[in-house]
Design goal:
The chain is mainly alpha-helical. Helices cover 80% and strands 0% of the residues. Helix 2 runs antiparallel to helix 12, helix 7 (83-106) packs antiparallel against helix 10 (168-196) and helix 8 (109-132) runs antiparallel to helix 13. The chain is globular and about 50 Å long.
Amino acid sequence: MINENQLTIHKNPNVFYEEKFKGIFFILIASVLWGTTGVAAQFAPEVSAFAIGSGAMGIGGLLQAAIAFSYLKNHRYQLYQQRGWILLGAIAVTLYPLAFYGSMRVSNITIGTVISIGSAPFFSAVIEKVMDHFDVTKQWIIGAMLGLIGIFLLCFSAQHTVHNSLTLSKIIVGILLGLFAGFTYAFYSWTARHLMHHELPSKAAMGSIFGIGGLLLFPVLLVTGGAYFNSWNNISVGFYMAFIPMFLGYICFGYGLSFVPTSTATLITLIEPVVATILAVCIVGEKFSGLGWLGIGLIFSCLICITIPINRKRR
């Protein structure tokens, strides 16, 4: 398999950086859209975390498969050859929203989002190292450390400003669910990137993984989703979650993922907890301290660090 370092050698540097910035731009759009999901879910409190997760990701995944139908048909032979990875990626897609929204419901929006998204870049780096023998750069390490410190400050700020009803046990359970969500997110992102490296377009890769994941989530939605029909408000939240952050967001993410490695893509999505935290403070009323704002600043520094082009010396 050709890894990312090998690919950059054969590309014109200007073309490579142009594609990199294109990928970063679309992943940023996806991250902003995803950052709205935690607050949106708060407007349907009677809908369980399983129903929220299965509805958003399940319907969004089926829509991904629907718009990619011609790509799935035209590349069915290549998809069949990669059926094992597609199934594993689909299972990760199935488990991710259940853990992610469960983490937010058990703890709060900030802790759930920060841990889930904040842990993903490091799981991605480990997966790429093991599966692709990908060597992370010093630039990525510096950016990751800035992001990690920022994430810890955000989490620390949230832990010390939450309501009294949020106990230590709930925080721990929320963190564990968030870590599991981070791993599954990193894994299905890597799987999609793996398929793209095997001459599959992003629509075919994303459509296959998310389509099967959507089918696997559909029974969960049938069992847990009855509360959606208790009010028009719940229905509108469900439609928003499925069509905007999940459907449109993952179209942008899949396109951006075709230009940057998974470890870089998941670092960029550290913007998601920033958006989620700001919305939680402004709309839901969660409290926030100065340390949290410092954390946000470090996360933006992380984004700047991994975006700056580095000119490598030619041998």
